[in-house]
Specification:
The chain has five helices and five strands; from the N terminus they run H-E-E-E-H-E-E-H-H-H. By secondary structure, it is α+β, with helices and mostly antiparallel strands. It comes from Lysobacter niastensis.
Length: 170
């Protein structure tokens, strides 16, 4: 059984698309695409399900399709906006994968030279060799410092969201 993080109330249900720091870039019947308030890479976005579900295994077929279509749509906008060297997509299922919020969200991240992530998502990059010992949960040591380093102003987040939104495909 997948062990889930505990957050009550759910921070994504409470904040995504409702607070300025989680500015909406795009939306569909099943998803919201928002700017990630923690800009580990400039332009980092998340596709979030409107329905509160915890993991990939909980999504309906329609939600799965909507998530991937939304991710592709914002990835196209990120390529137009930033001309990145790559696009990283990832999604965590359970605390042993680094999931911190029990609400499905799919990261879409433009990658550039000079990233301090290493290979993979940020919570894995904190471990030697971008991996961790089998059977251990994500170690949040250093997360607070990393999150502080990637905080940007609400104004900057809104400007970034506006720029990405302006480059969404028609």
């Amino acid at each position: 059984m997948i062990e889930l993080p505990i957050r009550d109330p759910c921070d994504l249900c409470e904040t995504a698309g409702r607070e300025d720091r989680w500015a909406i870039i795009d939306e569909s019947e099943h998803t919201l695409t928002v700017i990630n308030p923690w800009q580990f890479e400039v332009g980092q976005c998340c596709v979030i399900t409107r329905r509160h579900v915890a993991t990939l295994l909980d999504l309906s077929d329609q939600e799965c399709e909507a998530v991937m279509l939304s991710a592709r749509r914002v990835a196209e906008a990120l390529v137009r906006t930033y001309r990145p060297l790559g696009i990283l997509t990832f999604q965590n299922n359970g605390v042993y994968s680094g999931q911190e919020t029990p609400h499905f969200h799919f990261h879409v991240v433009p990658r550039q030279k000079g990233s301090d992530w290493g290979i993979g998502p940020p919570q894995l990059a904190t471990f030697d060799g971008a991996g961790r010992q089998r059977g251990t949960p994500h170690d949040p040591t250093g997360d607070a410092q990393r999150r502080e380093r990637v905080q940007v102003s609400t104004r900057q987040l809104a400007e970034t969201a506006d720029l990405i939104r302006s480059n969404l495909p028609a």
